[in-house]
């Protein structure tokens, strides 16, 4: 599709401020028609069932279900629609998970609007898969990662804990940084290992970052 003015857009994000800002910017710059706005996964699914859309711009982790649920819902309910993921995380593993789930672009919310809009327009025009330049190279990721379905099972908080694990933080530091208890961290770590099918925390990090397990704290 190349006629941007006829592009029907669904915006999905837990923040009303973000969806409204995108709505205004997309209309003013490219005359996109925003035909739906959703703040939860359930609302997004209802929109996808009831309204024809050409483009879905969605957060990586929308309230109401695991990460990437809206990407997968779009692939099922509106397979011809293109999906752009907006995220706060400059994570290569998250970017690959988004593309594997069916997104055509993984962009960062922290990017200036003037940079985001051309990339979104390019996605509509059928550009190859796009990843924000500030996201680390996917080349260093292992060829075999946990399947997107496994990553998508992680809650937003479990992703936070996994990110801290990848920085080499032990449970006490993770608890301090995320303002949660040590017991809560342990619960999240156990859930992460179970959902990813990892042997231990070092293995879980290595699975998604492709680093030697010796580089990470294992206690």
From TrEMBL:
The modification 4-aspartylphosphate is found at residue 59. One of its GO terms (molecular function) is DNA binding. SMART domains: HTH_LUXR, REC. Residues 8-124 form the Response regulatory domain. PROSITE patterns: HTH_LUXR_1 (PS00622), HTH_LUXR_2 (PS50043), RESPONSE_REGULATORY (PS50110). Gene3D superfamilies: 3.40.50.2300, Winged helix-like DNA-binding domain superfamily/Winged helix DNA-binding domain. Pfam families: GerE (PF00196), Response_reg (PF00072). Residues 147-212 form the HTH luxR-type domain. This is DNA-binding response regulator. It comes from Lentzea flava. The lineage of its organism: Bacteria, Bacillati, Actinomycetota, Actinomycetes, Pseudonocardiales.
